[in-house]
Amino acid sequence: MAEERTERAQAVQARHTDELMAKAHVQGVAVGLAKEAGQYTGDVAIVVMVDQKVPVDQLAPEDVIPHELEGVRVDVQEMGIFSAQ
Fold it and tell me: Second label for 9, Cα 20 to 30 Å away, from 21, 28, 77, 80?
């Protein structure tokens, strides 16, 4: 069951990565575990990694990240800015 959820999330992620990466503050997109209050929930999600979380009312409409895509949960996680060392 978990494997099926992961495979489905990967397929949905592949279809939406370009549109998610085009949004403000997005640094990366992957399939992983959702977090709530800093703790992993065990729920498979499309994880959108951002340099900083910004309140929805301060984002342009095209930069708002949906709560789900094609029935798969989307979780925004603040990761800072990625850079090569």
Answer: 80
